[in-house]
Amino acid sequence: MISRSSLRHLRIPFSLLLMPVFLFALGLTPNLNGGRLLLVFLALHLFLYPSSNGYNSYFDKDEESIGGLKHPPKITSDLYWLSHGFLLVSLVLGMMISWTFASMLLTYALVSMAYSHPAIRIKKYPWASWFIAGFFQGYFTFSIAYAGLSDLGWDVLIKPHIAIPGLLTSLMLWGNYPLTQVYQHREDSRRGDHTLSILLGIKGTFMFSALLFVVTGAAFAWFFLDRNQESVLWIYLAAMAPIVLFFLIWFRFVISNSEKYASYSWAMGMNGISALALNAFFIYYFLENTQILQVFEY
Fold first, then answer.
1. pLDDT category of residue 297 using cuts at 50, 70 and 90
2. Which of 61, 74, 80, 188 has the maximum number of C-beta atoms within 10 A of its C-beta?
3. How far apart are CA 283 and CA 117, in angstroms?
């Protein structure tokens, strides 16, 4: 029997935070097909990400706030099997496109499992967890989405026209990832997880993220200008404005009282604004780059 607490630990709405990666791949894919689009979206956002969330929650057994759950319910044994069930559905959907696409989904899942499984627990290594989480949720996921949308194989990982935007998505996540840990220092320390945010300290985390946000903005600016999309660049900067403003206000409060303002509410506020602004931008970018009716041509 599936418990209500296990369903909550899947944190399906939290998948919205990673949707900009899928939408960016969608905006750059030349061979769109409505059936593949639906399968890729469902496999990633409705089943693979929730499976990962549930699996990680099962082994973390958090007692304090986690992403998407301010008061996480008690873990029950069915969560383990529910997370595997969601993974199985994701793989079945992937195989409806190709075995290659399904194998890429499985690779993501295995790395995600290694992130929190006690036998490996990548999460306890600050720089390794930062790099691996940003790479697989960014570059690798972008490549998965592109491969699924276009029915391509593993070689997408080394193609320059995919590698460059894929790296841009990883830069976004490498900048934001430490901010998702600033309110979890006590919980992570209790489990022995020495996260990057703990290593940098609260104020150091903000300075590190600020530096990467600048690098990310400059990299996206170069990308759009290199493609002669100056108008898109201005829309991108407009989308980034509320994110940067929220970050600066949050940083200002953290400087005055880091313990009080390095909180779940502020972190989720940052994530929520980022998701809304970036999802809106990449939907615009998709519409700008694509004849939308072609998606449902077949």
1. very low
2. 188
3. 35
Q: Report the 10 Å Cβ neighbour count for 119.
A: 7
CB 171 within 8 A of CB 216: yes
Long-range CB pairs of 262-268 (<8 Å, 24+ gap) are 262/182, 262/183, 262/185, 262/202, 263/183, 264/65, 264/70, 264/183, 265/70, 266/183, 267/67, 267/179, 267/180, 267/182, 267/183, 268/67, 268/68, 268/70
Percent of all residues in the chain with a pLDDT value above 70, rounded to a whole number: 97
Q: How far apart are CA 252 and CA 261, in angstroms?
A: 10
Of 252, 270, 255, residue with least CA distance to 213: 270
Task: Report, in angstroms and rounded to the nearest whole number, the Rg of the chain calculated over CA atoms.
Answer: 19
DSSP 72: P
pTM over 0.90: yes
Tens of pLDDT, residues 121-132: 999 999 999 999
CB under 8 Å to 91, separation ≥6 — which residues?
Answer: 43, 102, 105, 106
d(CA 118, CA 280): 38
Helices (H), 192-229: 196-200, 202-226
For 192-212, write each residue's pLDDT tens digit. 888 999 999 999 999 999 999
- Structure tokens that stand for 194 in this block: 């020495």
Q: Residue 68: which region, alpha, beta or left (left: phi > 0; alpha: psi -120 to 50)? A: left
- Is the Cβ–Cβ distance between 203 and 166 less than 8 Å? no
